[in-house]
TrEMBL record:
It is found in: Membrane. Keywords: Membrane. GO terms for cellular component: cytosol; Golgi membrane; Ric1-Rgp1 guanyl-nucleotide exchange factor complex. Residues 754-924 form the RIC1 C-terminal alpha solenoid region domain. InterPro entries: Ric1, RIC1_C, WD40/YVTN_repeat-like_dom_sf. This is WD40 repeat protein. Its main location: membrane. The keyword Ubl conjugation does not apply. Pfam families: Beta-prop_RIC1_2nd, RIC1. It comes from Malassezia arunalokei. Residues 948-993 are annotated as: Disordered. GO terms for biological process: intracellular protein transport; retrograde transport, endosome to Golgi.
Length: 1045
């Protein structure tokens, strides 16, 4: 989705001679085309270029003008960015034209030939598009830094509105003016800049009392959406309306403060997903879904930052693609996804305490926000901080620009590419390299697995913003497309390829998306009105003469998908076309297989965001039959729709059974390249939860599993790792910096345990075994099963006496039966037991079996680590004779198999079981008898050694003189292997007495006990002052001999 990255840039106009103007800023607004934006102060109007961010022109009103008309309040752009209007405090509209000299040659060409030509300065251009090593600027004409063309603000007219102005909105080609007394609305035409084209007469005002669907209260806010041709109105009595106009104004009420209690203060219309955001006085944002101005909008969800003190909502701004909403609050800001996932926010209590001087004033309150073209930058006009605010801004910053990263799926969603993840920024892309990591490395926190690929400055200079980006399935190739042309990149060579002939690049634009098929780039293009499907080879230069194939279509492409060798195109005329990609040694060709019209099924083709198909498993027909056999999934706005094919009885026409799976989906995945058990599944995200249908072809009534992801946004599904990869934004403040640095933090969530649980709940054990089998080689597979058993145990053990469990068959026995099919079953059971409370053990081992029997099975399998873990459970659950016998058996097996580390921990555990050592003596005595030959656990031998062999000091004479170590050095301790070698090299002769060997074994056991955190103290009866471990028993000492090897 959208995440902030890096630090915010600061824009100031103090160097241009506007001192202290930042304290007077009251409004900020962006033009409809996104190329220009303005900042309005109480006395000045500043026009800026969006990229590079640079002041273009400014106008400061005189004291006489302010006295006569009043100070500035807000401003509106005309739809073509050629004029604007300023509303003042004294109910006056000031009209200005934005003009440029016509006798100068244009250098900076825009996509719209009628738009003004804006040439950035050399300084601004170089600061924004910095060439990398080996890159250079090449422009048409060769003179990049030629003369600049400045814009001029020309005062056109002033209109006094006697009834008083309560709200204004720009409605092409007029201005909506809402008056206060009487409460009315009136359309006023924009003043004409030419005497030959006089302005149209104003329409008569319409009293709000004459509109039956509207309360007769004055408007306080109005906003118009050009894409939907609908407006949002707020009235003084706290009502919000969605309004349209044909012959007359007609609307429907969406919100009423009389019913809900909070007053609405601002709105924002999302044309892409038909959402209306209403910001309230207390800080909440309520979302409504609308269709027409005659139907009442339906409330979908509420965005709330409780318990943070946000203050009232000051500004709302949707991204151009409608996927994210920026919210300006009185005391901060936040960014939400369209269906309610919180991406980032600024509400922290330690901003000023984390650094000595903090200058990001926008973190403490905003007045206006808007998104730049492409959605990779957020412009923020901060609220003027009070005098006692804990911030300091010596730069007198006027506006902050916060860079953002966005998922490439916001422009083109590819459901089949479940593990493909890369992000697009303003000047580069970040490619996910998780597939190159090991299992353990992938789960490590703060693992940097991104590869940054900067975009070529030459392409960005002329074709910004980037509209489409596509990555190959193996991650080797990347393609981008801006306003015109395209470019592609190889991660192997590290080089970009662009059109060498500028006229060819400028003759087409990518419209509908791009996709990689091996080394071939497939792009849907609009070439001067002709819709084409072009095939480019990465191995050849970008030139129209080197196209591998070209197909011409009769309608624009809405979106495209690549499924194996099938290229699916959904067109604006409601037709789905299927091409099969055939490859030979010399050629790559598109072969038309068929098409289907969805007229009458899909109402608005332009609202289709993505689609995919699921083929039956038994399908081995020709590619031409795939389209008629496939089950289709469409994502229309936020509605996830399933279409099942059904043959008509009377003819060969194909019909579909339509089913709506969910109405508010942000993204979805169909892992057709996953393991067999998941190939027919469907995964989706609704802003709060992940919904999973395990087999969409068999049943699709309700999702098989639903789980929430609170703090992270899912990016992709690593089906071969059993992981959902998510991301969230982290704000970093350091003592040495005066600003906030944002970074993207990845998180991993296991999904395999949840899928297995869903199958076990339906008693589909065989399917669960089949689903889990491919994941057995994973390093963390045992952990997955442990999480599964642990979650089931904690839920059912607490409900074992309640009616809810009595009515439903317990799931734990089924889960344990499922575990028996895997070698790690015994290990999983004991790990799950030791991670839960002892009170739940009885419920677990009633189903799993006696702990002593499970420990014996571990010993028989040679799994001594798991057997050692069972010791605690055995001593807690079994009776004393059984516990002592089972423990002694385990100790004997540990010694026989030289598992000294496990034996050390076992002795340490037995030492702490009771105060007098009875359990340790009993277990060691029995274990010594079970060991074949002489045992080191023989307590009599250790007593004899302790009585006969005192410790002696051995003189040591170093071969080399001692030296001092630096701060980063230290004397190295011999490794364990070196110590073993030195011990084994000691000559042993029959003349040597056995107490030497006894002393050596005592020292070994003493070091083992010390490593096991056994504290040496005089109060411990089993530890002698000479440092040897002694086990007191009844006195019957005997000789100790080495254990035969």
């Amino acid at each position: 989705m959208y995440w902030p990255t890096g630090s915010a840039r600061r824009l100031s106009v103090e160097s241009q001679g506007f001192a202290d103007i930042h304290t007077e800023a009251v409004h900020m607004s962006c033009a409809r085309d996104g190329l220009l934006w303005l900042v309005l102060t109480r006395s000045a109007l500043l026009i800026w270029r969006a990229r590079p961010a640079e002041l273009v022109t400014a106008m400061v009103r005189t004291a006489r003008s302010i006295h006569e008309y009043g100070a500035n309040l807000c401003a509106l752009w005309r739809h073509d960015s050629g004029a604007l209007v300023v509303r003042t405090e004294r109910d006056t509209l000031l009209f200005y034209d934005l003009v440029q000299p016509t006798n100068m040659t244009a250098v900076h060409a825009l996509s719209d030939s009628t738009a003004p030509d804006l040439v950035p300065s050399a300084q601004a251009l170089l600061s924004t598009f910095q060439p990398a090593t080996g890159d250079a600027y090449h422009t048409i004409g060769g003179d990049l830094f030629g003369g600049r063309i400045a814009l001029q603000l020309v005062f056109r007219d002033a209109l006094q509105v006697d009834p008083g102005i309560s709200a204004i909105a720009s409605i092409d080609p007029e201005i909506l003016v809402a008056t206060r007394s009487p409460a009315a609305v009136q359309l006023i035409p924009w003043p004409s800049a030419s005497d030959e084209r006089p302005s149209a007469p104003s329409a008569p005002p319409i009293l709000l009392a004459s509109l039956p669907w509207l309360t007769p209260s004055p408007l306080v806010h109005a906003e118009h959406s050009y894409a939907t041709d609908l407006s949002a109105w707020l009235t003084e009595d706290g009502c919000a309306y969605i309004v349209g106009q044909s012959d007359a104004w007609i609307g429907a009420c969406a919100y009423s403060a009389a019913e809900n209690g909070a007053m609405p203060v601002t709105t924002a219309v999302n044309a892409r997903f038909s959402l209306l955001a209403v910001g309230l006085e207390q800080g909440d944002i309520i979302m409504f879904e609308f269709h027409t101005s005659t139907q009442s909008p339906e409330k979908t969800h509420t965005l709330s930052l409780t318990p943070h003190d946000t203050g009232r909502v000051t500004s709302l701004a949707w991204t151009a693609d409608g996927h994210a909403l920026a919210v300006g609050y009185e005391r901060g800001w936040a960014v939400w996804s369209m269906f309610g996932h919180l991406m980032t926010h600024s509400f922290r209590s330690d901003w000023q305490s984390m650094t000595r001087v903090y200058r990001d004033t926008f973190q403490f309150g905003t007045q206006s926000v808007f998104w730049a073209l492409g959605g990779t930058e957020l412009f923020v006009l901060p609220r003027v901080p009070p005098a006692d605010a804990p911030v300091k801004d010596d730069d007198k910053t006027l506006v902050y620009i916060l860079p953002f990263l966005k998922a490439a799926s916001t422009a083109q969603l590819m459901p089949a590419e479940t593990d493909g993840c890369f992000l697009v920024g303003d000047t580069g892309a970040y490619i996910y390299r998780g597939n190159e990591q090991s299992d353990a490395g992938l789960l490590m926190p703060d693992n940097d697995i991104w590869r940054h690929v900067p975009f070529p400055p030459e392409y960005l200079t002329w074709q910004w913003p980037i509209r489409y980006a596509a990555q190959s399935s193996d991650g080797r190739f990347l393609a981008i497309a801006g306003r015109r042309g395209l470019a592609h990149y190889s991660t192997v060579s590290g080089h970009w390829k662009m059109y060498e002939v500028a006229s060819q690049a400028l003759s087409f634009c990518v419209r509908g998306g791009m996709v990689w098929f091996q080394h071939v780039l497939i792009a849907a293009c609009d070439c001067m009105g002709e819709i084409q499907i072009r095939l480019y080879s990465r191995d050849q230069a970008l030139d129209n003469a080197h196209l591998l194939d070209l197909a011409v279509l009769d309608a624009p492409v809405v979106t495209l998908q690549l499924l194996d060798t099938s290229l699916l195109l959904y067109l604006a005329n409601n037709t789905l076309i299927h091409y099969n990609i055939t490859t030979t040694r010399e050629h790559v060709r598109l072969i038309l297989c068929g098409s289907i019209s969805f007229e009458g099924i899909i109402g608005e083709p332009s609202r289709v965001r993505a689609f995919s198909w699921l083929l039956p498993e038994q399908a081995e027909a020709l590619p031409t039959d795939d389209l008629t056999m496939a089950t289709l999934v469409f994502l229309i706005d936020g509605m996830l729709v399933l279409l099942r094919p059904a043959k008509a009885s009377d003819d060969d026409q194909l019909s579909y059974d339509l089913q709506v799976l969910h109405e508010h989906i942000e993204s979805y995945w169909t892992p057709i390249y996953a393991y067999e058990a998941l190939q027919q599944s469907l995964w989706s995200f609704d802003g709060q939860r992940v919904l999973v249908w395990l087999n969409l072809l068999q049943h699709s009534d309700a999702p098989d599993y639903v789980f929430s992801v609170d703090d992270t946004y899912p990016l992709c599904i690593l089906t071969d790792r059993g992981i959902i990869l998510g991301a969230d934004s982290q704000a970093v403040v350091r003592r040495t910096l005066d600003t906030t640095a944002y970074r993207l933090r990845l998180s991993t969530s296991l999904f395999l345990d949840r899928i297995l649980r869903a199958l076990l709940q339906r008693r589909r054990v065989s399917e669960a075994i089949h689903s889990a089998a491919p994941y057995v080689p994973l390093e963390y597979f045992a952990h997955v099963l442990e999480v599964l058993v642990h979650d089931i145990l904690e839920k059912e053990a607490d409900e074992s006496t309640s009616a809810s469990l009595e009515d439903n068959a317990p799931l734990l026995p089924t889960a344990l039966a499922f575990l028996d099919h895997f070698d790690v079953a015994l290990q999983v059971i004991v790990r799950a037991a030791r991670k839960t409370e002892v009170s739940r053990w009885a419920y677990l081992f009633d189903a799993a079996g006696r702990p002593s029997d499970l420990m014996q099975r571990c010993l028989d399998r040679g799994d001594y680590a798991s057997a050692g873990a069972y010791l605690l459970v055995v001593h807690e659950m079994e009776d004393r004779p059984t516990s002592i016998q089972a423990t002694a058996t385990a100790l004997a097996r540990f010694e026989e198999n030289e598992e000294w580390e496990i034996l050390r921990h076992a002795l340490s555990f037995l030492h702490g079981v009771d105060q007098n050592g009875e359990t340790l003596r009993a277990c060691a005595s029995i274990a010594a008898k079970l060991v074949r030959g002489k045992s080191l656990l023989s307590m009599e031998n250790d007593l004899e050694g302790a009585q006969d062999v005192p410790l002696s000091r051995t003189p040591f004479h170093p071969k080399h003189p001692s030296r001092k170590y630096s701060l980063n050095e230290s004397p190295r301790r011999p490794s364990s292997l070196a110590r073993k070698n030195s011990l084994s090299s000691m000559p042993l002769s029959p003349a040597q007495n056995t107490p030497v060997l006894r002393a050596s074994s005592a020292h070994v056991l003493h070091r083992a006990a010390r490593s096991a955190s056994i504290t040496l103290s005089p109060s411990m009866p089993r530890m002698q002052a000479n440092g040897r471990l002694v086990i007191p028993v009844s006195p019957s000492p005997g000789p100790l001999t080495p254990k035969p090897s």
